[in-house]
């Protein structure tokens, strides 16, 4: 099973698994002798080699090569450039002004930047909340909606609607809800008068939690869909057996359904971690990532579109984000692809 | 097994009160879920003058679509739908085209590089965009394209946005499509190979048509994601006029959208196309999200 991210509009991530069960037989090509083809380092099995003409191999090279060049140039070269630039200062004008400064950027970041540690802390809180609220709630809703009840479609749509909308629009909608003077919450509880005034957006003790409600609101629907897909994989025979044994609903869930949801849980966890690291749009629209809602992604971006464009410094923050991401991505992909190779 | 199924059906019949309780719970939760959206709709339907004097929690005297028409006209929204289409359509088509070629390569042939290639694509798509944005932004400023884009650079151009969308999304699509293509029986192309059909023909006439369901699902997903994109657009586009609609909305609020009711209307208007796509292609969208999450 593998998860892949998306544009980072945070619009969810797709999921795939190698259908090991339905895997077709491997192609009947001899793996005996291999030859280096075109110096591109791929080894072509004999069986294919005899059938692939020169032109075919050129075609294949182009088919895989062009998209790969584009992807590597814009995604991986830039990621590596982030790492390289993190150890330099550069004003962006001309390449000869790049100066090597070693770990200075990081030193300043860790000791001198009043926003850095709060941002790390907020990213951690963001992740913790997404794990503690949308995960169980999404699973619970999925299990209930999986019972073939009436109106299931209607309920699903209600929970899923926020996932279809952009984070920016969600940011605006929740601004209307939280607006201290005219918002839904303060209007209802009468907290928009002087003396009894709650500033959900501006108060640095409250605004992170306010945004997190919106983030959880959206993430729950997304996870519900993933869990519903996972529940379709539960063998009905198991449920029947469990019911026959006189197990009640909770016992059936605990002993039969939950164990089969293990792969889904892995995917959900990875999706959630990536989502927490990517969180940006919602906060940016909500209050520009001002005091109380700083995130690593916001710090990187402010460095670009803000007043000071310190390239090396911005890259250093990006490297911190990259390292945290890779700590999740690498073990996950290694495990996934190892499984695929075995199948 | 008939005896057991009979016993089962007896056990399966839900207890009525429990079922009713479940419906009450689900309906209540669903309503709570829709509340913020309903609030935005209600605000957008009321004139600002009325809500500012009576407060928002009050019985509306008058509901009208004025805010919607004003938001649409004042912000020149039609223009922004245009800029968005100009970015989203080529980006979706190119992403599907390029990633299906990569998928074809890694799933139908067993070259040594395949696994590494797929890993590169998959991992690339999992990175947070902010990891690459600083050098990307600089790169876009450095690339001169005189006469090709309005800005003369990759920066601040639709082309620049299309390229980064394609590069970033093709990771996800290549992965999904390669899994899909792997399930197609090899005999399909083996025969063509023996008959001497070129690999291009195998891809274009045999494999691609069979991938239609997966392509449809991915196209739906990509359209919504790219339409909803906010981050690339606010960093890589500087001229307000060139912005796609989602980031334009952010730009316009405060400039044309002065009161909360107008902002609500503007935000809801930008969400309408995605909602239409979702309701029209619900099954594709959901299956795209969960593609292959369960076997079969």
UniProtKB/TrEMBL annotation, chain B:
SUPFAM superfamilies: MetI-like
Domain ABC transmembrane type-1: 81-281
InterPro entries in the record: MetI-like, MetI-like_sf
Membrane topology: Multi-pass membrane protein
CDD domains: TM_PBP2
Subcellular location: Cell membrane
Gene3D superfamilies tied to this protein: MetI-like
Chief place where the protein resides: membrane
Keywords: Cell membrane, Membrane, Sugar transport, Transmembrane, Transmembrane helix, Transport
UniProt key word Secreted: no
A GO CC annotation given for this chain: plasma membrane
Domain of life (superkingdom): Bacteria
GO BP, one annotated term: transmembrane transport
Transmembrane segments: 20-42, 85-106, 113-137, 157-177, 214-237, 262-281
Entry similarity comment: Belongs to the binding-protein-dependent transport system permease family.
Name the UniProt record assigns to this protein: Multiple sugar transport system permease protein
Species per Swiss-Prot/TrEMBL record: Streptomyces collinus
Lineage of origin: Bacteria, Bacillati, Actinomycetota, Actinomycetes, Kitasatosporales
